[in-house]
Amino acid sequence: MTEDQLRRKIDYRIMEVQQASPETEVRVIVVTNVPPTQPILAELTSAHLKIIKVFQDFYSIKVEGKAKHVTSILSKDFVKYLILDEIIVRGAEL
Q1: Which DSSP helix (H) or strand (E) runs through 85?
Q2: Cα distance between residue 7 and residue 26, in whole Å
Q3: pTM for this one?
Q4: Which residue of 18, 27, 81, 91 is most buried, as measured by CB atoms within 10 A?
Q5: β-strand 50-55 against 25-32: which pairing, if any?
Q6: What's the pLDDT tens digit per position in 17-41?
Q7: How confident is the model at residue 7 (pLDDT cuts 50, 70, 90)?
Q8: Which CATH number fits domain 3-88: 3.30.70.80, 3.40.50.720, 1.20.1050.10, 1.10.1380.10?
């Protein structure tokens, strides 16, 4: 896949976070081309992503992980689009 094709599959905010701080934890919704199956979930966990929730009817999976790990799944065939759900801030409250 070309870089332009990959950019069409990702929320620009995820790219901004990844470029600014690749170690930042994010929660992302992975929209898939096919219903989420066990092999797909295994691929996501092997990419260092934590499965939060699976939405079978919507072909979506909510995952949590570092921004650099989220962007690493872009080239997977089952990934249709990545949507930023939340940037996770750990540590002291402001």
Answers
A1: strand 79-88
A2: 18
A3: 0.90
A4: 18
A5: unpaired
A6: 999 999 999 999 999 999 999 999 9
A7: confident
A8: 3.30.70.80
